[in-house]
């Protein structure tokens, strides 16, 4: 969604990862885009992805996004999985306060809301979290850069091991309720977190095949991905995944 304006730190790269990991396994993958004003039935997709952006971009897409509220609710209801990064994550909550203090009403699917950092302060840097997604327990690595301070998250995605997370000193990062995964982790997220990529593929496939399990996915060679992770774990003196 809004691929042309919501693509901070190469968030669209997440879709390249999904495409490659599906194609390597012979799983058909089709990528479509939905920009401002484009007519699309979002409930007809297996996965919706919405990346991060600057305040200006977030503001510019709000009328279009709000006009799709009912359609997005239908998509979630009909098991379209939703992956949200940073700005996209913020916009599924009640409101977002931009750096200039203006308050933007958002979709309001969840009670969380995003205030702005005091005196323009931002959470910037590498981040590692200990995440729980259904039966999958794994560490996620990424990069965060947000002024927004997200509070009132009732289902956080994981515990912060290094970095900030939902807000300065939040201790917790992101949102996950089985249907929607929201996170501040750019990087892009999926190249450095292959298990999360496979988790997202599994959730997307479950729309049409509810019995599909992550263990049904053919294993791929993740040697390079895992050494990138190990390098970061080592740098931050965090024990890697077993
Ligand atoms: N503009 C938002 C913020 O600063 C989101 C930034 C982002 O997507 N990285 O909080």
Automatic annotation (TrEMBL):
EC number from the UniProt entry: 6.3.5.13, 3.5.1.2
Pathway: Cell wall biogenesis; peptidoglycan biosynthesis
SUPFAM superfamilies in UniProt: Class I glutamine amidotransferase-like (SSF52317)
GO biological process: one example: regulation of cell shape
Top-level lineage group: Bacteria
CobB/CobQ-like glutamine amidotransferase domain mapped to chain residues: 6-193
PROSITE patterns: GATASE_COBBQ
CDD domains tied to this protein: GATase1_CobQ
Positions annotated to bind substrate: 122
Molecular function per GO: carbon-nitrogen ligase activity on lipid II; glutaminase activity
UniProt-listed Pfam families: GATase_3
Active-site residue numbers: 86 (nucleophile), 186
Keywords, comma-separated and alphabetical: Cell shape, Cell wall biogenesis/degradation, Glutamine amidotransferase, Hydrolase, Ligase, Peptidoglycan synthesis
Catalytic function, reaction form: L-glutamine + H2O = L-glutamate + NH4(+); beta-D-GlcNAc-(1->4)-Mur2Ac(oyl-L-Ala-gamma-D-Glu-L-Lys-D-Ala-D-Ala)-di-trans,octa-cis-undecaprenyl diphosphate + L-glutamine + ATP + H2O = beta-D-GlcNAc-(1->4)-Mur2Ac(oyl-L-Ala-D-isoglutaminyl-L-Lys-D-Ala-D-Ala)-di-trans,octa-cis-undecaprenyl diphosphate + L-glutamate + ADP + phosphate + H(+)
Signal peptide: none
Similarity remark: Belongs to the CobB/CobQ family. GatD subfamily.
Subunit structure: Forms a heterodimer with MurT.
Job description of the protein: The lipid II isoglutaminyl synthase complex catalyzes the formation of alpha-D-isoglutamine in the cell wall lipid II stem peptide. The GatD subunit catalyzes the hydrolysis of glutamine to glutamate and ammonia. The resulting ammonia molecule is channeled to the active site of MurT.
Name of this protein: Lipid II isoglutaminyl synthase (glutamine-hydrolyzing) subunit GatD
Origin species: Lentihominibacter faecis
């Amino acid at each position: 969604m809004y691929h042309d304006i919501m693509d901070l730190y190469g968030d669209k790269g997440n879709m390249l990862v999904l495409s490659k990991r599906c194609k390597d396994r012979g799983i058909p993958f089709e990528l479509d885009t939905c920009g401002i004003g484009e007519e699309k039935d979002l409930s007809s997709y297996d996965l919706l992805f919405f990346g991060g952006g600057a305040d200006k971009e977030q503001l510019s897409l709000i009328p279009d996004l709000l006009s799709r509220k009912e359609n997005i609710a239908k998509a979630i209801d009909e098991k379209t999985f939703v992956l949200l990064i940073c700005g996209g994550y913020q916009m599924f909550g009640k409101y977002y306060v931009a750096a200039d203090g203006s308050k933007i009403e958002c979709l309001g699917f969840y009670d969380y809301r995003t205030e702005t950092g005091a005196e323009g302060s931002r959470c910037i840097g590498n981040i590692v979290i200990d995440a729980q997604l259904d039966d999958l327990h794994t560490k996620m690595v990424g990069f965060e850069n947000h002024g927004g301070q997200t509070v009132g998250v009732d289902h956080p995605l994981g515990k912060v091991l290094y970095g900030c997370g939902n807000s300065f000193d939040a201790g917790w990062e992101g949102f996950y309720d089985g249907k929607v995964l929201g996170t501040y982790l750019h990087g892009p997220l999926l190249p450095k977190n292959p298990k999360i990529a496979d988790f997202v593929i599994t959730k997307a496939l479950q729309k049409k095949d509810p019995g599909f399990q992550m263990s049904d996915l053919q294993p791929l060679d993740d040697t390079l991905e895992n050494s990138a992770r190990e390098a970061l774990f080592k740098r931050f003196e965090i024990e890697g995944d077993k």
